[in-house]
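Continuing from yesterday's entry. The apo prediction looked reasonable, so today I'm repeating it with nicotinamide-adenine-dinucleotide included to see how the binding region is handled. Same sequence as before; SMILES copied from the compound registry.
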Amino acid sequence: MPQIQIRLAPLRDRSYTVTIRSGLFGTLPRRLAHIAGGGRIFIVTDRHVAPRYGRVLLKRLLHLGTDAILLTVPAGERSKSSAMALSLQSRLLRGRVKRDSLVVGLGGGVIGDLAGYVASTVLRGIRFVQVPTSLLAQVDSSVGGKVGIDHPAGKNLLGAFHQPVAVFIDPRFLRTLPAVEFANGLAEVVKIAAALDAEFFRSLELLGGRITRSNHRLLTRLITRAVGLKGAVVARDEFESGLRKSLNLGHTIGHALEASTGYRLKHGFGVAIGLMAETRLAVALGLTAPETAVRLENVLHLMHLPTNAPRKIDWKTLRSSLAMDKKGDARGTAFVLPRAIGECAIGVRVPPEFINCIDMFLYE
Ligand SMILES: NC(=O)c1ccc[n+]([C@@H]2O[C@H](COP(=O)([O-])OP(=O)(O)OC[C@H]3O[C@@H](n4cnc5c(N)ncnc54)[C@H](O)[C@@H]3O)[C@@H](O)[C@H]2O)c1
Ligand SMILES: [Zn+2]
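Holo prediction written out below.
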């Protein structure tokens, strides 16, 4: 069974294991009971995941004699709010949360971010386990310890670094994931390969259409590779002072597109278009060869992901959000741009004349 150890320096006692196995859900109650060690388990999930997996998990935990509670929130990004965080914090406090309690985030990236944020704040931080059920959460958001909620001023503006004590990934969860959410997660897989690993990218080019929600053997390999790459980056740069920024490839323009479409564009779709637009920009700046853009476009098409921005965009929001990107500083927005497939440049200051004609890079 693939196990990836995330060793965080310098406090190695915060290191944790990501376990990836098809069918892992069957042994999850026992594993969680072991980690909880008698402390109460608060399972946080959403209304789509609760009837499929949450209630079964609760039943099996109770059957084992474990003290557990299921807390369900509405599905979707709107639950990543301070109102929902407060509601969960209150439910934990009413549920007599203690320092030995365990929060389990069972769901997609929204649940992982929200449950992790709540776990990081209640009683100054209690233990947290990630059980990601969407592809995006399995390959990206469940590993790395970034937790948070949205603010009316922008997405993910409130949060913390709060590493989980363990991550359990079962690719079988993806059988019930809607196709559009599967494609959404594939965008992050393409990003990880494009940013860090030319060989992985090559295997995506070759595998293409064989990557489906029910091909668990292939998914296990794919997720293991993506998590291994992300884990290695996080272990070297937990707080994103350098190397970890490379995981923001596609995200500067991606986030701006999400904002400029009033968040109707899914994160992964924004990232796919962002990857493409940032690569076209890198070609224009002479940073990468035109072939990089051709190969990226082919892979994104194989994954049924968009490569051009939607026509209905609020351009003012797009430009101001590019200027305000939280990864930038007083000197302007710092881009992560590809140098080649599997290699990127961090902190590239893009001249304003290129930002002013950003539309040139959003469409082919
Ligand atoms: N913390 C990080 O490092 C990080 C990284 C990337 C993205 N994110 C965050 O992740 C969020 C997006 O995550 P997401 O795409 O998983 O969204 P999501 O959590 O909203 O899940 C997408 C949809 O799929 C449903 N779902 C999840 N698993 C399912 C399953 N197995 N079967 C059926 N339905 C299922 C959910 O109920 C939801 O409707 C964003 O808020 C983004 O900011 C965080
Ligand atoms: Zn992302």
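Comparison notes:
- Residues 216-236 form the longest helix (21 residues).
- The pocket of zinc ion (ligand 2) is lined by residues 140, 188, 251, 267, 271 (CB under 6 Å).
Will overlay with the apo model tomorrow.
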